[in-house]
TrEMBL record:
PANTHER family: TRANSCRIPTIONAL REPRESSOR PROTEIN YY (PTHR14003), ZINC FINGER PROTEIN 143 (PTHR14003:SF23)
Protein name: Zinc finger protein 569
GO terms for MF: DNA-binding transcription factor activity, RNA polymerase II-specific; RNA polymerase II cis-regulatory region sequence-specific DNA binding; zinc ion binding
Gene name for this UniProt entry: ZNF569_17
Location of the protein in the cell: Nucleus
Pfam families: zf-C2H2, zf-C2H2_6
Organism in which the protein naturally occurs: Araneus ventricosus
The entry's keywords: DNA-binding, Metal-binding, Nucleus, Repeat, Transcription, Transcription regulation, Zinc, Zinc-finger
Keyword hit for Transcription regulation: yes
Main location: nucleus
Length: 237
């Protein structure tokens, strides 16, 4: 290996332990947008060899750094350190605008966009902009009609994993959201939130015609038909 490097270095003006010209080439790829380093497993391309090496670990599935509290494993020590803050309730990254604190720096960066109104992720199809990359990825599926999350029970497909999780409860009959007041259980958090308004006597949905208020939006929509005289349900017989 050392002999090969020596021979290679002779092709350049100076003989060094590490080739400065190759290092410069990798740096120049950042400016030229070239990505010559290709992953042989998935085809993903990178402009620097170090980034490719880091990416290859995701295929090897080697996760030597294990959380002593919950046994979750990580490929990088830094990720484990960030994860441990969740257990310790440490939030060292504080927003200078509103003082909200976060366990990870990227969460703070994402939060700051709520103040700056910055939306750096733009849809290539319709130019709609988003503050978070994940939201843009989910939005793109409305164009591609892609539904990657498939129910193993009935084969129904979904664009988002959260929708699949909700759907699975129709099969398992699981109701994890429980009312602390009356112990009634619900399969979705939104249903519990709507139910709690009954106990709190909250009626946020107000009719603009007669000012009558309702705990749920669906009840307001039904009520509005008494004003519009709309009758959308027609007997087919």
């Amino acid at each position: 290996m050392e002999e090969s490097l020596t021979k290679h270095s002779l092709a350049h003006p100076k003989e060094k332990d590490e080739c400065e010209i190759c290092e410069m080439k990798d740096h120049l790829y950042i400016h030229t947008k070239e990505k010559p380093h290709v992953c042989e497993v998935c085809g993903k391309q990178f402009n620097q060899i170090s980034n490719l090496k880091f990416h290859l670990r995701s295929h090897k599935k080697r996760k030597p750094h294990v959380c002593e509290i919950c046994a979750k494993a990580f490929s990088e020590r830094g990720n484990l350190t960030a994860h441990l803050r969740i257990h310790r309730n440490e939030k060292p990254y504080v927003c200078e605008v509103c003082s909200k604190a976060f366990t990870q720096v990227f969460s703070l960066k994402t939060h700051l966009r709520t103040h700056t109104k910055e939306k750096p992720y733009v849809c290539e199809v319709c130019s709609k902009a988003f503050a978070e990359r994940g939201n843009m990825v989910r939005h793109l599926r409305t164009h591609t009609k892609e539904k990657p999350y498939v129910c193993e029970v009935c084969g129904k497909a979904f664009t988002e994993i959260n929708n699949l999780k909700k759907h699975l409860r129709t099969h398992t009959k699981e109701k994890p959201y429980i009312c602390e007041i009356c112990a009634k259980a619900f399969s979705e958090r939104g249903s519990l939130t709507a139910h709690l308004r009954i106990h709190r006597n909250e009626k946020p949905y107000v009719c603009e015609v007669c000012s009558k208020a309702f705990t749920q939006l669906c009840n307001l929509k039904t009520h509005l038909r008494t004003h519009t005289k709309e009758k959308p349900y027609v007997c087919e017989v």
